Amino acid sequence: MITVEKALSEIKKHSNLQHKRVQSVPLNEALGAVLADTIYAPIPLPSFRQSAMDGYAIRCHDKKTYKVVGEIKAGDPFEFELNPGEALRIFTGAGVPDSANAIVIQELVDRDHETISAQKAPTMGQHIRKTGEQIKKDDIVFEQGTQLNPPALGILQSLGFTKVKILLPPKVAVIITGNELEKTGKPLQKGKIYESNSLVLKTVLQQMGIINGIVEQVEDDLKATQSAIEKALNQSHLVLISGGISVGDFDFVGQALEQIGVEKLFYKVKQKPGKPLFFGKHKQTLLFALPGNPASTLNCFYVFVYPLLQALMGRSFNGLLRIKYPLADDFENTTDRALFLKAKIQNDVVTPLTGQASSMIKAFAMANALVYIPLSKKKFKKGEKVETLILPHGN
User: Is the pTM here over 0.70, yes or no?
Assistant: First the structure.
């Protein structure tokens, strides 16, 4: 059994195992995707001097009065040659002629027919957006690995891009095991439970932009389990197995993995929930065997699978955002394992919720964070700060 920290370190070592797949897509299909290449600016932004305000473009002289000799709207040509003491009516976003050296805003101007009078002396260059003020030509716009959000897509379109090369998300297969599991929509027999882990895993993957995986449910049978795993290994970059990894008489996942030749990188983590966690690889495919209890499955996904998927998608191996929050009450860890506690951040303090058992998932639905209690410390006082992982589905 290894610690949480050693398990994460081992996973990170194998996070570059996959060959990245690249595809060129239109910008309107790239939201949330990760850039495959660093992007350089083909033009400056803005590409010409622009007015930052509605007002008057002037060529300064030693008086406050100026003669208005024309008008420029956004999108108009701006081939004007101003003499000292001349002005152009101008609007926000319009091009500023090279001969103009300041903009005076309309609220600070008195106009009488074709003459304006500035209420105070203008400053050279005021209210003029310089060429390349935001981005210069050939500057790096976004580094490889940047995740594209709406403003990023807007910048790329402003620079004239219509397509962008992105990293395709990895193919992830989900295998659910257990004779006790029944599909919803069927009458529930005694001794059976409705299966939910497939939906939980499928939707947390969808939150990350991964919708290309296969989901298969198998009974507790060695041959069927082995066949499902071999199929998933051949079709996927990452395989997630839920259940069947413990040491019961009908837990066949471990035997199947051994017969297939999956290399064990670690098995069992000194944590609660989720001790019976397996991580391995087979050729170029990585594999997690997750404990079957719902809260354990989801906890292991967020703590261990999430950062690996980030790396496989071209992002940094960071995992969930971690922030130190003060505890709402005293807490003592009475176990010999590190703890991940479903918790609620509210009013700048964090409170562990009731219902922490590995079979209980309702607390996850109510939580917006996980409190991490490491092995190195047993007791925490009210107000003491603890490491808190922010859940992406937080309420």
Answer: yes
Distance set, CA 385 to CA 324, 337, 341 (Å): 5, 20, 14
pLDDT tens track for 346-388: 999 999 999 888 877 888 889 999 999 999 999 999 999 999 9
User: 212: phi > 0 → left, psi -120 to 50 → alpha, else beta; which?
Assistant: alpha
Residue 391 to residues 160, 214, 354, Cα–Cα distance (Å) = 36, 25, 17
Walk me through the domains of the chain, giving residue ranges and CATH numbers.
Answer: 4-20+169-312 (3.40.980.10), 30-43+136-167 (3.90.105.10), 50-129 (2.170.190.11), 322-390 (2.40.340.10)
Query: What pLDDT, in 10s, does the model give residues 283-334?
Result: 989 999 998 888 899 999 999 999 999 998 888 899 999 999 999 999 999 9
Of the candidates 130, 138, 128, which has an alpha carbon nearest to the alpha carbon of residue 159?
Answer: 138
- What backbone phi and psi angles, to 5 degrees, belong to 296? -65, -45
